[in-house]
Amino acid sequence: MARILAYTSPARGHLYPLTPILDRLEARGNEVAICALSSELDMLRGRGFDAQAIEPGIEAIEIDDWKAGSPRKALGRSVGVFTARAEYDAPDLQRAIAEHDPDLLIVDINSWGAMAAAEASGLPWAVFCPYPLALSSPDVPPFGPGLRPATGPLGRLRDRMLRPLFVGGLEKVMVPGINGVRSGLGLEPVSAIDDAFGAPDLLLYMTAEPFEYQRSDWPDNIVMTGPCEWDPPAEVPAWLERVDQPIVLVTTSSEFQDDGRLAQTALDGLSDEPVFVVATVPAGDPATYRVPGNARVERFVPHAPILDRAVCAVTHGGMGATQKALARGVPVCAVPFGRDQLEVARRVEVAGAGTRLPARRLNPVRLRTAVRTATESAAGARRVAAGYEAAGGASAAADAVEQRLLAHGGLAVS
């Protein structure tokens, strides 16, 4: 039996895919403690975990990249948030280590201070990543703008020419912030983002081919697990039983990014279609929307029973919502607004699992057309679902933790 300490950022979209992994680790006889956002403690304790709130100062620093006027400025705002949170989450993890005396650590990739503290601790440690990795490779396009993978000599030339522009720009913003955190803990600086991904003993990458692009140079510490999607237990809404039409699920970001117009555009564009639209707006107010007769808007409703009857999911390009649909073989119309969503939307398109509609081109007519086209991609969505299943999900992630970290630490594997 091992003592496992997990540390998460204040994002449900990161906590929820970690939860089934911790479930399996605990079921195998390990003790699990977790530091997470305060609103989720009762749920986590109900699952048998020793759950404590992360430092309140971390939750108080909200991501505000949606206020930026350009992708570069948005990245700068995000880096500023993660750097500011690091001042709290590094000592917060150190405190938790002292209290729990764990045998190994599992840390959120967005908790930069906690990542540095984990590395400095000398304990075996893993990072989990529920969104596309900005990991360089000659086999894939430079990360950021959502480019289609290159084909032929001209395509590879494109990537070589653009990589310094996009990756170099990304590193110019991110690396100083990462190194500022590392220096405070006596760690050597990194020279590239790739170095930060190579630091943990294990990186649980919560996706799989064919949704993720194939590459020949995956680092040895990366294990692709599939999405490990999970939602808290919830009752199926009674109104869902009365819906007798095919369903289109529309989702917006759980962390505010001013993408509410996606839901309204979908409501308007699909109002005359032979479908029932369910829109969830976790960071918005359902009362502010014009809702046609073939639709319903909720702040939250469990997605699983809706996706089980859905013919398409319209997402903001968030990795969680998109992979949740694809894991059930439901094609996706992805409308990316920023962050990593350009990369997610392009992967939907390249995998043949749906359509991509840039937010700048969003209007009711274009969205209706994109949804109609996406519904014809069910076969591609099922291929992605099969890839996720083959990756093993939460069980494969738990296996990797036990085999790579427990054995590394000299502990027995259950």
Low-confidence stretches: none
Radius of gyration: 21 Å
Placed side by side, the strands forming the largest sheet appear as: 3-2-1-4-5-6-7
N-end to C-end Cα span: 7 Å
Order of helices and strands: EHEHEHHEHEHHEEEHEEHEHEHEHHH
Share of helical residues: 40-55%
Number of helices: 14
Measured by DSSP, the beta-strand proportion falls in: 5-15%
Shape: globular
The biggest beta sheet reads: 7 strands, parallel
Q: Structural class of the helices, strands and pairings?
A: alpha/beta
Secondary-structure arrangement, i.e. CATH architecture of the largest domain: 3-Layer(aba) Sandwich
Number of domains: 2
CATH superfamily of the largest domain: Glycogen Phosphorylase B
* CATH fold description of the largest domain: Rossmann fold
Averaged pLDDT? 91
Number of strands: 13
Output the CATH class name of the largest domain. Answer: Alpha Beta
